[in-house]
Design brief:
Number of domains: 2
Radius of gyration: 23 Å
CATH architecture of the largest domain: Orthogonal Bundle
Largest sheet: none
Strand content: under 5%
Number of helices: 12
Order of helices and strands: HHHHHHHHHHHH
CATH superfamily of the largest domain: MetI-like
CATH class of the largest domain: Mainly Alpha
Helix content: over 70%
Number of strands: 0
Length: about 280
């Protein structure tokens, strides 16, 4: 019996290992393909390292760089604004024990449920009379509208995982509710908020369908610029190179958060610093 049990355990571990390897290959293969194509300057990737070069990156036109930095600025601004709005709102809903809190939470999730195509059309009908289409303010508001649901979900989960006794102890020592929130609650959930900001930023960086309707010549995110050029000219090498740069930015932000907070915080536990 023991040999059979041992053989079964080995088989299970092997099967799980193969499953994880296949899943990783499935997830990473498109990214590796894009990066190889960007360094080979052609779309017919041959997995040979002999022809690697930077020609596609050197050929990236100034219009792409303008769209890229516009997108980064809008994504960072929208992420910061979404977090500033979502965290106090989540605190009010969780600690304030508001009536209909569950209904409010579900209402905020509507942007995640409704297709971005529909949201884009709806925002366009609102933005045109307000002169918010084809400018930075409109792009920013559109990204914030998309990001609030993610920020609120993360913030609610973090606050529900944080024992209220910490805040009550601060109140018993004479701190006001605001001081308790700023000096006790925020520092304790800060690692989780950083993780939320990372995911929101990634989402904002690559959002396309929503921004396609509110963007224009004066406010063109890089996703819209890439789509327009690919439709007009086909998949060109420097477009693939710019897609590679978006991958590098995403990896850089993830690495920054992981190195700053440490691996244990990437697991998403707000109280992980107790361990």
């Amino acid at each position: 019996m023991k040999p059979r049990a041992g053989l079964g355990a080995v088989f299970s571990r092997t099967a799980l290992t193969l499953y994880v390897i296949v899943m990783l290959i499935w997830l990473l293969f498109p990214i590796v393909l894009v990066l190889l194509a960007s360094f080979q300057g052609k779309l017919e990737v041959d997995f040979s390292l002999a022809g690697l070069n930077l020609e596609a990156y050197k050929a990236i036109p100034p219009a792409y760089w303008q769209a890229f930095w516009f997108t980064v600025r809008a994504a960072v601004s929208a992420t910061a604004l979404a977090i500033v709005i979502a965290v106090p709102a989540a605190w009010a809903m969780v600690r304030g024990r508001l009536r209909g809190r569950r209904v409010l939470s579900n209402v905020v999730l509507i942007p995640d449920v409704v297709p971005q195509l529909i949201m884009g059309i709806a925002l366009l009908t609102v933005f045109i009379p307000l002169h918010l289409s084809n400018n930075f303010a409109g792009i920013l508001l559109a990204l914030v509208a998309l990001s609030l649901s993610t920020g609120l979900r993360f913030s609610e989960a973090l606050l529900e995982g944080l024992p209220e006794e910490y805040e009550q102890a601060a109140l018993s020592l004479g701190a006001s509710r605001l001081k308790s929130f700023l000096l006790v609650t925020i520092p304790l959930i800060a690692p989780g908020i950083a993780i939320a900001a990372l995911f929101i930023f990634m989402q904002n960086l690559v959002t396309f369908e929503l921004l396609f309707f509110v963007a224009g010549p004066n406010a063109t995110p890089i996703s819209v610029r890439l789509f327009s050029d690919i439709v007009d000219r086909g998949v060109i090498p420097y477009a693939v190179a710019m897609a590679g740069i978006l991958v590098y930015v995403a990896m850089a932000f993830y690495t920054l958060v992981a190195v700053t907070l440490g691996p244990k915080y990437m697991a998403g536990s707000v109280m992980s610093r107790k361990g």
